[in-house]
Design a protein that fits this description.
Helix content of chain A: 40-55%
Distance between the termini of chain B: 23 Å
CATH architecture of the largest domain in chain A: 3-Layer(aba) Sandwich
Low-confidence stretches of chain B: none
Helix content of chain B: 40-55%
CATH architecture of the largest domain in chain B: 3-Layer(aba) Sandwich
Largest sheet of chain B: 8 strands, mixed
CATH class of the largest domain in chain B: Alpha Beta
Number of domains of chain B: 2
Number of domains of chain A: 4
CATH superfamily of the largest domain in chain B: P-loop containing nucleotide triphosphate hydrolases
Strand order of the largest sheet of chain A: 3-2-4-1-5-6-7-8
Number of helices of chain A: 25
CATH topology of the largest domain in chain A: Rossmann fold
Shape of chain A: flat
Strand order of the largest sheet of chain B: 3-2-4-1-5-6-7-8
Low-confidence stretches of chain A: 1-5, 303-308, 310-315, 436-468, 470-499, 505-513
Largest interface: A-B, 57 and 53 residues
Oligomer: heterodimer
Number of strands of chain A: 8
CATH topology of the largest domain in chain B: Rossmann fold
Radius of gyration of chain A: 28 Å
Radius of gyration of chain B: 21 Å
């Protein structure tokens, strides 16, 4: 979408400005904080939450940790991200089931938030886990909400308790109470009570919801809220907290392009955990909530820092080193391509990783439509090649391609596409290896071979030597040869020019303690 | 029960002060942001008002409030909010994302038209969501309008739309309102379907209005929604629903200005008569007080 990702661009610009300076001045921090504030408001985060958030970021950014750091941009990104995840709730909580069944789950929220659909999704999800859920149709307000729940229930393969046909007739409190009794009698272990949508300002309807809560004594009251909601999330969440005192939150319609700032607002204001995210119209589009993913969605930071962290965990350094050498010496083969992909997969959600790569922002749509299965197919294709073919993609003629396609169970077009993609990647890698990566704040250390093939030395070494003027830098690529091959540079060698504290910071940042 | 948040309330504090101070501006900014005007429009408004205050040497917050009201009214009134329903039958296509209140809006609109002596037929082209057809059926009954239902489950919505217009012509209904399934504006395939529905209707009769329904609780994403629906369905008017809640729907100013599509109708409750035309003066009055 048009405006999607614009924050990332803006922030990258601001941070790029920061990068050119050695240390953070108060003015720099204020500039960045202003951008973040604006971005959060654009993401519909509640104003109060924005204020406390930016204040916290500002305070931390002005602290000693940043002014001493080598890469201020990196630090700011990290602070922002840390704070965001901290508010969103660290680890996500699971649904709490009652010790003695049935577990009663009540759904509440505004009109059109997606309660009825969610009831079906939740029922299906729980049924898949071996539970016996019963849906209770307590939305007697909206025309044919009961019918909708019945349809959804049959799609999910669960029973629906609907003694009243709805459309304004019948007592929802009684239906809810009877529903729970019915579940006890017929030994369902989970009861999901769907209630009518209501506005936070509608006193009468809120009272009704409170009465339902009182009548069924739910183990969980889930507040269902549309990810697209704006500043009104505050008033609504507060009203529902007072009205039904919800125990958890479900965020719906996350398959749209709303940044979902409401998640941050609701966490920040009520402290209630977000349990689930609903991401589409079919009953399977439902998943547990991940605070870290939400953090990167709200601010779309293109988590360069996280990329470094994750990549460091997953990439074994030796391989990275070898790969980098291969790229620089033009020996990037399909085998390397495959290894690289497998490593990325190890690093976690591939899509997420792609999204984190700096420069991948322009590819957002491509990323969104990226299918993880594609990876498996790619693997199959490459593995159907002979070692020689993998090393020299140029020998792949028509008949070889046909054989590979048959072996991998794909079409020749797929094979052609893969090779085209590979060649593009190889070309890109070469450019990158030759010219370095411009405008990538916080990219941090580059694998050694990328700049100076076969000279060994840890990236840190170069990173530091580089801090001088650029002309000089190009003249001395061979300098850091004194380190061991990689991994353990000698302090007096690579780090000789640094003070102890600076060295320590650097080591820590590179995960090289 | 939380007290109903209102811009009026938020502004009251600031306008009670005797002179305009930095705090007045801070309060104004808070009020505008909280009403979902978004950071851009808020900044514009404040800059413009600051310039005015300096130029006119105003220092009474009451004057500032009047100036704010005037500015907002002026900006809201820039477009013509009248529905154009001159064709016979006048075909109205109603679109929007999920859960904004399309079906309810159609029920209310049908009722409004019926009460004004028009004969109305509604078309249940939301063949996707469970029980959407039944929901529209209930509203049609309440409104006293005819309804065209799909002949079978999961029928192509475009064909239902076609049959509705056909029925309108055959039975001489003056108005023909077509419901569509809610769709997120990011779903390419579903958005293309709207184009098809439009094309199929236009084979029979020109479309008088394509109304995009927006939920007042929506935040800044409303602009994205409108942009996508304009591209795929050629929107001619906006309907803002759920204004009876605590949400102020300030984002619609941004939508109206960015897209040039006027706000035409406003929904303010679940009752069948809670639909009114858009009057900038009244709307701003409710917003600012």
């Amino acid at each position: 979408m048009a405006t999607f990702g614009s924050l990332s661009t803006r922030l990258t610009e601001t941070l790029a400005k920061l990068r050119t300076k050695g240390k953070l001045s108060a003015a720099d921090v204020d500039g960045t904080v202003r951008e973040i504030r604006r971005a959060l408001l654009d993401a519909d985060v509640a104003l109060d939450v924005v204020k406390s958030f930016t204040a916290a970021v500002r305070e931390r950014a002005l602290g000693a940790e940043v002014s001493e750091a080598l890469n201020p941009a990196q630090q700011v990104v990290k602070i922002v991200n840390d704070e965001l995840i901290a508010i969103l709730g660290g680890d996500s909580r699971r649904l709490e089931l009652a010790k003695t069944p049935p577990t009663v789950i009540m759904l509440a929220g505004l009109q059109g938030a997606g309660k009825t659909t969610l009831a079906g999704k939740l029922a299906k999800h729980l049924r898949a886990q071996g539970h016996q859920p019963l849906l209770v149709a307590s939305d007697l307000q909206r025309p044919n909400a009961v019918t909708q729940l019945q349809v959804v229930g049959s799609q999910a393969g669960v029973q629906v308790f609907a003694p009243e046909s709805g459309n304004g007739i019948g007592d929802p409190v009684k239906v809810a109470r009877d529903g729970v009794a019915e579940a006890k009698r017929r030994q369902y272990d989970i009861v999901i009570v769907d209630t009518a949508g209501r506005l936070g300002v509608d006193a009468e309807m809120m009272k009704q919801a409170a009465n339902i809560r009182k009548a069924v004594q739910p183990d969980e009251v889930l507040f269902v809220i549309d990810a697209m909601i704006g500043q009104d999330a505050v008033a609504t969440a507060k009203a529902f907290q007072e009205g039904v005192d919800f125990t958890g939150v479900v965020l719906t319609k996350l398959d749209g392009d709303a940044r979902g700032g409401a998640a941050l607002s609701i966490r920040g204001l009520t402290g209630k955990p977000i349990l689930f995210a609903s991401t589409g119209e079919t009953l399977d589009d439902f998943e547990p909530f991940h605070p870290d993913r939400m953090a990167s969605r709200i601010l779309d930071l293109g988590d360069i820092l996280t990329l470094i962290e994750q990549a460091q965990k997953a990439f074994d350094e030796e391989e990275a080193h070898r790969l980098a050498e291969a790229i620089a010496t033009d020996g990037f083969t399909l085998e390397d391509f495959l290894k690289q992909m497998q490593q990325l997969r190890k690093a976690g959600n591939f899509k997420q990783m792609l999204g984190m790569l700096p420069g991948a922002k322009g590819m957002r749509e491509a990323i969104d439509s990226f299918d993880e299965k594609e990876l498996v197919r790619t693997e199959a294709i490459i593995q159907s090649m002979t070692p020689q073919e993998r090393k020299q993609s140029k020998i792949l003629n028509g008949s070889r391609r046909l054989r590979i396609a048959k072996g991998a169970g794909v079409t020749v077009t797929d094979v052609n596409q893969l090779i085209a993609r590979f060649e593009q990647a190889a070309k890109m890698m070469k450019t990158v290896a030759k010219g370095g990566m411009p405008n990538m704040p916080g990219m941090g250390p580059m694998p050694p071979g990328m700049r100076a093939p076969k000279k060994g030395g840890k990236p840190q070494g170069k990173q530091l030597k580089r801090s001088g003027n650029p002309a000089k830098r190009t003249e001395q690529p061979a300098a850091p040869a004194q380190g061991s091959a990689f991994g353990k540079p000698k302090a007096e060698g690579a780090f000789g020019e640094l003070s102890d504290t600076e060295q320590e910071t650097l080591q820590r940042m590179l995960g090289n303690r | 029960m939380a007290a109903k948040w209102s811009l009026t309330g938020a502004l009251r504090g600031m306008f009670q002060r005797e002179t305009i101070t930095e705090e007045t501006w801070d309060d104004l900014e808070t009020a505008l942001i909280t009403a979902d005007f978004g950071p851009d429009i808020t900044e514009q408004l404040i800059d413009a008002l600051r310039a005015d205050v300096d130029r006119l040497m105003v220092d009474d917050p009451k004057d500032l409030k009047r100036m704010l009201r005037e500015r907002l009214e002026e900006r809201f009134a820039e477009f013509d909010p009248t529905l154009s329903l001159k064709e016979r039958p006048a075909v109205i296509l109603v679109v929007g994302v999920n859960g904004v209140g399309k079906t309810t809006t159609i029920g209310k609109l049908a009722r409004f038209l019926v009460r004004n002596g028009q004969s109305v037929v509604v078309g249940a082209a939301d063949t996707f969501r469970a029980a959407a057809v039944e929901q529209l059926g209930t509203w049609a009954q309440r409104a006293g309008s005819a309804i065209v239902r799909p002949e079978r489950e999961g029928q192509d919505p475009a064909s239902v739309a076609f049959q509705t217009v056909e029925a309108a012509k055959a039975h001489g209904h003056a108005m023909c309102i077509i419901d569509t399934a809610g769709r997120l504006h990011t779903k390419g395939g579903l958005m293309d379907e709207l184009g098809k529905i439009k094309r199929v209707i236009e084979k029979q009769s020109p479309i008088a209005e394509v109304l995009l329904v927006l939920d007042a609780t929506t935040g800044q994403n409303g602009v994205n929604q409108a942009m996508a629906f304009i591209e795929h369905a050629g929107i001619t008017g906006l309907v803002v629903t759920k204004l009876d809640g605590s949400a102020k729907g300030g984002f619609i100013l941004a939508v109206q200005e960015r897209t040039g599509i006027p706000i035409k109708l406003i929904g303010q409750g679940e009752g069948i008569d809670d639909l009114t035309g858009f009057t900038p003066h009244v709307f701003v009055e409710q917003l600012v007080g």
